[in-house]
TrEMBL record:
SUPFAM superfamilies: alpha/beta-Hydrolases, Galactose-binding domain-like. Residues 1-23 form the signal peptide. SMART domains: PepX_C. This is X-Pro dipeptidyl-peptidase. It comes from the Bacteria. Pfam families: Peptidase_S15, PepX_C. The lineage of its organism: Bacteria, Bacillati, Actinomycetota, Actinomycetes, Pseudonocardiales. Keywords: Hydrolase, Signal. The keyword Transport does not apply. Belongs to the AB hydrolase superfamily. Residues 289-484 form the Xaa-Pro dipeptidyl-peptidase C-terminal domain.
Length: 496
C-alpha cells in the first residue's frame, strides 16, 4: 500500500489537471526507476507532453526536498508539460523514501545523480540535450545549483528556498541554529537512511563539536563553485526562512555573473512556493515557468527586461523591483546607541520565534513575532529606542548594529532584534541575528542583521534589543557573567 500511494496521488493530480479528452496537447505521467550515480536506483515520476509531435522536448529535472518524495512536484510538472511542452522528471533524492542509497547531504553522489537523471531523460524520455533546466525546493534547490556548477548542459536553474552557504545558514556567526539542525536531523532519520557524513555530523553536533562539522560545508555550498555556474539562475526565498536565511542568498546573488533573478517575499522555509509545487496558482511558480520558457525555449515573455531583483515587503504590500540588491537601499540613517550593561545568561521575552511556525504565520496571516517592550527585563537586555517616524517609511536592505562590546565571560552569545514599536510599546519583529564572541577583551562588533523590506507605520519607532538567550539557537552565555556596551555604538538603518 505504501508503494502504491505515490501512484494514486499522481493519478489524482492527472485527473484534476488533465484537459478534456478531445483537447490536444496533453500530458502523460509514468512512474520510473532511473539509474543514478553508480547505478543507484532512483524512483521518479516522469511527466511527458502528448499531442506535440515526437520531440525532443525541453527537459526539466526536479530533485525532491529533504524528507519529501517524488510526488512533490507532480502538480507543477503536469502544468509545465501540458501548458509549455516540457518533459519533467520529479525524483526522490538519494537515500530518502523509495530511492536507494544513503543520504550524503548533497555530496558528490547526490549531485552526480542530477546528471544521471539528465542522461536518462535525454535517452529515454525525448529530452532535448540542448535545452536542460534543473530546479526544486530546499534540498532540491541546493542540488540544482551544485549540479549547474558541475554539468555544463544545465542552461537554466530555479532554486527555491535554497542554501548557498551551508555553514552560514546553520552556524551563523559561530552560533548553532539548534531548532533548524534538530529539524533536519529528525526528518532525515524518519524518512531516509543517513550515510556516514550525516551520522558523523550528528555525533559531533550532539557532543557540541559543531566546529568539526564545518569541513563538510564548502564542497556542499554553491557559493564555493559560483565561478563554474554558466546557467541562468532564478532564486526565490522567504524573508523569515528559518533554515536558510536571506543574507547568504543576497551575497550569492550579488556575486553571480550569469543572467539572474531574485525574489524575496514573506514566509518561512518553502512556504511561499509550497502550493505552486502542487500545481495550484502561485506567483513564484509563475515566474519559474516564465524563467524556463525564456531561457530554454526562447520565448519573448519580457522576463529578461524586468529588473532582476523582486521584493515584497515582509509585512504586506506589492512587489517592488530593483536593478541590483544594493539598489534596494536608497539611503542609510544612523541612530546612536547609549552605553549600557546587562547580565548575561538570563532569558527575556525578546525572542526570534519558532522555525517554520513564526515565519509561516507572518507570511500567511501577517502575524509577526511580537513583544511588549516595556516588559523586557532591562537587567538582562539592552533596549535602545529610535525616534518616532512621523511619516511612513520603509526599512529596505541590511540593518547593521555597530556595538562596542566588553563581555566578562570567555564565550558569550548576543542576539540582536530590530522591532517596529507603536505608541503603546507593542513591537513587531522586523529582523534579527545572533553572534557568539570569544574572549573578555573589548572589541567593536559589526553585526549585520538579516536583510528585510518592512513598511514602518507613521507614528511608530524602531527599537533595537540585544540580549543573550534565544530558544531558537544554542547560545554560549553563562549565568553570572555580564556584557557592557560602549557609548560609541550605533545602528545603521537602510531605507528605500
Amino acid at each position: 500500500m505504501r508503494r502504491s500511494l505515490p501512484l494514486l496521488l499522481a493519478a489524482l493530480v492527472a485527473l484534476v489537471l488533465a484537459p478534456p479528452a478531445q483537447a490536444a496537447p496533453g500530458f502523460a505521467v509514468g512512474y520510473r526507476t532511473i539509474p543514478g550515480q553508480g547505478g543507484t536506483p532512483l524512483k521518479a515520476f516522469v511527466v511527458e507532453p502528448t499531442g506535440r509531435g515526437s520531440g525532443p522536448f525541453p527537459l526539466l529535472v526536479l530533485p525532491s526536498s529533504w524528507g519529501v518524495n517524488n510526488i512533490e512536484y507532480v502538480g507543477a510538472a503536469a502544468r509545465l508539460a501540458y501548458e509549455s511542452g516540457y518533459v519533467v522528471i520529479s525524483y526522490t533524492s538519494r537515500g530518502f523514501h523509495d530511492s536507494a542509497g544513503e543520504i550524503d547531504v548533497a555530496g558528490p553522489d547526490t549531485v552526480a545523480d542530477v546528471s544521471r537523471v539528465i542522461d536518462w531523460g535525454i535517452a529515454q524520455a525525448r529530452g532535448d540535450a540542448s535545452r536542460v533546466g534543473v530546479g526544486g525546493i530546499s534540498y532540491g534547490a541546493g542540488q540544482s545549483l551544485l549540479a549547474a556548477a558541475a554539468d555544463p548542459r544545465v542552461k537554466a536553474v530555479a532554486a527555491l528556498s535554497t542554501w548557498t552557504d551551508l555553514a552560514r545558514s546553520l552556524y551563523p556567526n559561530e552560533t548553532v541554529s539548534g531548532q533548524a539542525v534538530d529539524l533536519l536531523l529528525t526528518a532525515g532519520k524518519l524518512t531516509g537512511r543517513p550515510g556516514p557524513v550525516l551520522r558523523d555530523a550528528e555525533a559531533a553536533y550532539r557532543e557540541k563539536r559543531f566546529e568539526d562539522v564545518l569541513p563538510i560545508s564548502p564542497p556542499r555550498s554553491p557559493m564555493s563553485g559560483i565561478g563554474s555556474i554558466q546557467a541562468a539562475v532564478m532564486i526565490g526565498n522567504a524573508w523569515n526562512d528559518g533554515l536558510f536565511p536571506p543574507s547568504q542568498i543576497t551575497d550569492f546573488f550579488t556575486a553571480l555573473t550569469t543572467p539572474k533573478r531574485l525574489m524575496l517575499s514573506p514566509g518561512d522555509h518553502a512556504t511561499a512556493e509550497l502550493f505552486g509545487a502542487a500545481g495550484l496558482p502561485n506567483e513564484i511558480w509563475d515566474s519559474v515557468g516564465r524563467w524556463f520558457d525564456h531561457h530554454l525555449k526562447g520565448v519573448a515573455n519580457g522576463i529578461d527586461r524586468e529588473h532582476p531583483v523582486q521584493v515584497k515587503p515582509n509585512n504586506g504590500g506589492s512587489w517592488r523591483s530593483h536593478p541590483t540588491w544594493a539598489a534596494a537601499t536608497a539611503r542609510t540613517d544612523t541612530v546612536p546607541l547609549a552605553a549600557d550593561r546587562i547580565d548575561a545568561g538570563w532569558p527575556t521575552i525578546a525572542e526570534s520565534g519558532t522555525v517554520l511556525v513564526s515565519g509561516a504565520l507572518q507570511g500567511f496571516l501577517r502575524l509577526p513575532v511580537g513583544v511588549s517592550t516595556p516588559l523586557i527585563d532591562r537587567g538582562a537586555a539592552a533596549v535602545w529606542r529610535g525616534p518616532v517616524q512621523w511619516g511612513a517609511t520603509t526599512v529596505s536592505g541590511t540593518p547593521r548594529a555597530h556595538l562596542t562590546v566588553t563581555p566578562s565571560a570567555a564565550r558569550t552569545t548576543l542576539f540582536a532584534y530590530l522591532y517596529e514599536v507603536n505608541a503603546l510599546g507593542l513591537g513587531a519583529l522586523i529582523t534579527h541575528k545572533p553572534v557568539t564572541l570569544t574572549g573578555t577583551h573589548t572589541r567593536a562588533v559589526d553585526l549585520d542583521l538579516e536583510p528585510t523590506v518592512w513598511n514602518v507605520g507613521a507614528g511608530n519607532r524602531l527599537v533595537l534589543v540585544v540580549d543573550t538567550v534565544d530558544a531558537r539557537y544554542q547560545g554560549s552565555s553563562a549565568l553570572g557573567s555580564s556584557v557592557a556596551f560602549g557609548a560609541d555604538s550605533w545602528l545603521a538603518v537602510p531605507r528605500s
